[in-house]
What does this fold into?
Amino acid sequence: QAKQSGRNTWREYANELASDVNTRLSLRTDLQKALVNDHFSMHYQPLINGFTGRITSAEALLRWPHSDRGYISPSVFVPIAEESGLIVPLSQWVLHAVCRDKAALNRKIMADFPFIINISPLYFQHPRFVEELTHALATHNLSPQDIQIEITEGVLLERVDHTISKLSTLRELGFSVSVDDFGTGYSSLSYLKDLPVDKIKIDSSFVRQIAGDRKSAAISKAIISLAHHLGLKVVAEGVETEAQYWFLKRHFCDEFQGHLFARAMPMEQLETRLREKGGGETLPMAPESDL
Ligand code: C2E
Ligand code: MG
Ligand code: MG
Ligand code: MG
It folds into this structure.
């Protein structure tokens, strides 16, 4: 209950922030300064294989500790960066920060798991995106298996052919691509059969409702089944409870990401976790009803 109200309060705060014109303008200026002064950092959230309990990969999530306003969610400031064009330098910053961290991790631990980067539709459409991506990898001595890409359905809103050919290029280069927040955008299911991608992430808004709402449960089940029939893997995001995990696991969801297993954490913490647990997480016990 406390969690629920916490979330609503946050939502209201986020909406308020996002809708106030002056706030947006001042955040834009602050973003610009933060870029110049390198005031961002990356956190990493593990993805867990639902069958083995092993951490397969980690999603890189941008953090901006704002000096006056405290923590501001990327779901608030990324859209502001997109509107103002700052998303391009911001994305370049993220790309290098994640490559640097991944290269450091490769040197320390025999970690054969990729870091996943969220690519904003605007940066994805940028003419130099693929070039900058491959250049960043080369600079840090990484291969395309080290970095995976996450896009949202937003990239499909315009220039579908162009998007499909860029995705094909990425896959030919050896990158794995996921569609993030699946089911929340406006793209139609028919695109999915032509999209050269590897994975789909069920949006947390469906996962959150699984236990209480039969429609969300049905949608989640349908997404998993559809994806598997198309030869795609499925990740569930925002998994917070054992009930959600078990529902999804029973319906053959491949990977899990959420507070039930791990929050996004700084690099050092991720390293400790990988070392201590050997990259394995304890999976919840099967509920009585399943035994
Ligand atoms: P996303 O890519 O869908 O990332 C998942 C979000 O869900 C993250 O929020 C993560 O912290 C949160 N999350 C994960 N598990 C749970 C859970 O069990 N419960 C709850 N309540 N939340 C959970 P975050 O870090 O605030 O990021 C929000 C969005 O901002 C991301 O959604 C992504 O769209 C965008 N974003 C974050 N980092 C970047 C970035 O480096 N570049 C771009 N372009 N976008 C980013
Ligand atoms: Mg994501
Ligand atoms: Mg997501
Ligand atoms: Mg999401």
User: Anything to note?
Assistant: The CA atoms of residues 18 and 76 lie 6 Å apart. The beta strands are 41-49, 55-63, 65-66, 70-71, 115-118, 147-152, 177-182, 199-202, 233-237, 255-257. Residues 180-181, 201, 237 surround magnesium ion (ligand 3) (CB under 6 Å).
